[in-house]
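Researcher: I'd like a structural prediction for the single chain below. Treat it as a standalone chain; there are no partners to consider.
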Amino acid sequence: MGFIDKILFRSSTVDLPSILQGKDVFIIIDKKVEQLYSTLFPFKKVYIDALEENKSLNTVQSVIDQLRNMGADKESFLVGIGGGVVMDITGFVAAIYQRGVKYALIPTTLQAQVDAAIGGKTGINTFGYKNVVGVFNKPDLVYICSFFLKSLSREQMLCGAAEMLKIFIIKSSQNYKAAVRYFTNYQSFDYDTKDALESLIVSAVKEKCKIVESDYKEQGKRIVLNLGHNFAHAIEKSSSGVVPHGYAVSIGIVMSMKIAEIMGKVKPQVVESIVADFEAIGLPTKTDIDIKVLIDVIMKSCKKGETSIKLIIPEKISSVDVITVDLNKLFTIAESIS
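Model: Treating it as a single chain, here is the predicted structure.
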């Protein structure tokens, strides 16, 4: 059974009660999501203040303590409801609680629906660095419902668009063009264009699933999903979380491409085209943070003894390459990037 077989795509939550019926359900939920949709989930709940800074081992410990106090056992079924932070914490806790319990994910942001909830990879932050601790743990169910997206701000939707575009840059020029058209005109959730959005979500999820299924534990091909993430994580850390993940990814993609352009690995017109598309949508393509500061953060996050990083670069839409760049050389290249 592949990843895609465990994913349900829905426009409403009408069948959710029947899906969870008969299970010993314990909910791990974002406090803000609980305020919006409390009546949908009449189960015992653990509440999370779903900030990136709380994606920590302290939060994991707190969740485990609360589950134990509420009577969760080996046969219990955990359900994570919220954005990326909740997805990561739920998957991680499900892997280690009682040496492993079954779990489901109900992502309520676009970013989580097309990325964080897909692929079974979890990450917990430590020492100020992202995803230092984590496990691979496939969910038993992912319930993707566009109903939840109506409550999101434009910024939250564009953060999800960045992750969606990343997938299409890697795998699908046709869907990339469709996503650019859709989000260039996006202001708020519109039921008249809901079908187009749902189609893009399904396509993005299917494309990511294909990559994950070919390399579940990230020994090779799955690394392409890190497009833009070397710099994205450094931007998030350097901005103390002020720059949200999706925006950091869009900037990171552009920075990686500009470095590759200087190295002669990417044609200038490819860079210019993607930058123009991102800017038309409203995604940021640059940061005020000194690139040397970002490279320093990247270097400090590398494993001991590493002297280079792998950059994922689009040769064109739907064709990416992985190049190895010496960390010291990055400083020299950085001088050329405005």
